[in-house]
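Marked as duplicate of an earlier ticket. Keeping the data here for the record.
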Amino acid sequence: MKRILLPLLLVAFAASAFAQAGEASVSMGGTSFRNSSLGVDANGTPWDASANFRLSLAFTLNTQSHFGHEFGYAYNHGSLETQGASFGMTIHQGFYHFLLYPTAEGSRIRPFVGAGVHFSAFYPPGASVYYGNGTNKFGLNYGGGIKARISDMFLVRFDLWDFATPKPDFQGTFFNQQGWLHQIAGTAGFGIMF
């Protein structure tokens, strides 16, 4: 009997440990850069970063009534700009947010604030993620938003985040860089709760 009871207790404990509220969401929106100067190239020509479109996927695990953990991926389309010319640039991001909710789990409206870490893989014009010729940078992120349940299963969300990262130099292309690049991302999305 004892041999059966212990495994049953372990299974029951494991089931309760994973019986947390989760969400999967997709969001779209726009981004802009602050402190967008990337420095100058070898000829002394100044370059700036510009961003416009963002698509993100996120998985949120709300482990306690007022706390959560969010893991996600975002695709950002932007450009490198110099002297009136613009060249396409993509940024792939993986991120983690620790979330704090002032309202309890199950509330219809849930504002939140959070902070976390991310990595950004910058790919200059003509570069591809398949050839590994991008520049990876790690940074900090903070922001918040609001989630609103529209049914027992679905929600909408609105987010505003600042992804701060060291500036990409694309293997020594840019010089005289100062400060960090701040990517301000505003998105609206749709999610499924489970």
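See parent ticket for discussion. Residues 2-17 form the longest helix (16 residues).
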